[in-house]
Amino acid sequence: MSDFQGYKSVEDRVGVGWRPEIGVGILEQLEEIDIIEVVAENCTHLSKSELKVFNRLSSEVDIVVHAVSLGLASTYAVSSKHVEAVARVVGAIGPEAWSEHFAFVRTTDHELGHLAAPPWSEETVESTIRNVHVAAKAIGSVPHLENIATLYHPIGSTMSEAAWTTEIIKGAGVKLLLDLENIYANSRNFQTDWLAEMLKFPLSDVKYVHIAGGHATTDEAGEYFLDDHLHPVAEEVYTLLEELASVVPQTLTVILERDGNYPAFEEIKAELDKARGALSRGRKRRTAVQNAR
Fold it and tell me: End-to-end alpha-carbon separation of the chain, Å?
C-alpha cells in the first residue's frame, strides 16, 4: 500500500485547515496559501456533488484530508462504519494524502468525544498497525499518523511516546504528521524540554506538520496547558518549526489549525508568514552547516 500517486515533491509549503468561518478569507487569499487541509468528518454529511467542490478547488491549490474519528490507536478493531465514511470523503475529494491520529476515540459501546492517548505499549503497537492496515485497504492508501496532546502519561505504558510512535511508523509503513503544538503542550504538562522531545521522534519520516495555539490554565490540580486551537501559535512552536527545518533534508508541508475564536483573516495570514519565516531560517541554518563541512 503506497501514498497517493499524486504526491509531489516540491519546496516547503504552508497552508491552513479549511473551516467555513474563514472560508471567504481563504478563497480571497488563495494565492498566499500552498495547501488546504479538509477535516473528513466535517464533510461526511455533504452530497457527492458538494464534495466535488473541493475536488475542483484542488485544481488551484493542493488539498489533504484529515480524519479524527477512526481511533486507530486502539486494541478495539477500527469501526467499518467510520472507515467507510472517511473513504467516501477521500474518494470524492481526491486529496494528495490523508491523515489520522495516534489516538483512540471509543470503546465497544461508548464514544469518548475526544482524542485519547492509549497505553504506549507493544500491545497497542500491534493493534494500531492492524487497524492502519484495515483502514488503508478500505481507503486505498496509508494515512499519515499524527502525535496527539495528552494531559497525562497513559496508564499501562511501557515505552516512551517517541519510541512507541517510531515502532508504529516503521511497522505500519506510514509517515509521521508531526504536530509541534502537541509536542509543546505535552512538554509543558510533563515539564520536559520541548526541543529535546521533538528530536526523539522519527523526523526523517515527517512530511506534514501541524501548528496551532493553546493556553495555560489552572485548577485545583495545578497548572496545565490546553491544546485548544483557539489562540495564536506560541513563539516556542515557531522555534520548534525552525529547528525541524534545520535538521531534516526533506520538504515539509506546514498546516495551521484553528477551530474557533477566529480572528480577522489578516491575522491568520500573518501566522502563515511567520511559519514561512521559521522554515526559511531553519533551511538557511542547515545550508550554513553543510557549507561549513
Answer: 39
Instruction: Take residue 260 and report the three cell numbers written for it.
Output: 474557533
pLDDT in tens, 38-67: 999 999 999 988 998 998 899 999 999 999
**By the 8 A CB rule, do 174 and 145 touch?**
yes
Per-residue burial over 5-29, b = 16 or more CB atoms within 10 Å of its CB, e = otherwise: eeeeeeebbbbbbbbeebeebbeeb
Neighbouring C-beta atoms of residue 113, cutoff 10 Å? 8
Q: How far apart are CA 210 and CA 91, in angstroms?
A: 23
CA separation for the pair 62, 81 (Å, rounded): 28
Q: What are phi and psi of 271, to 5 degrees?
A: -70, -35
Listed residue (87, 74, 70, 210) closest to 149, CA to CA: 210
Ranges of H-type helices in the chain = 23-28, 48-57, 80-93, 122-139, 161-172, 180-190, 194-199, 235-247, 265-292
Rounded distance, CA 87 to CA 93, Å?
10
Q: CB of 175 within 8 A of CB of 3?
A: yes
Tell me which DSSP letter residue 109 carries. Answer: S
pTM of the model: 0.93
pLDDT tens digits for 122-167? Answer: 999 999 999 999 999 999 999 999 999 999 899 999 999 999 999 9
Cα(123)–Cα(114) distance, integer angstroms: 22
C-alpha cell at 256: 495551521
Complete domains list, the chain, with CATH: 13-292 (3.20.20.150)
| Alpha-carbon gap, residue 171 to 129, rounded angstroms | 7
Nearest 5°: phi and psi at 274?
-65, -35
Closest CA to 224 of 287, 155, 150: 150
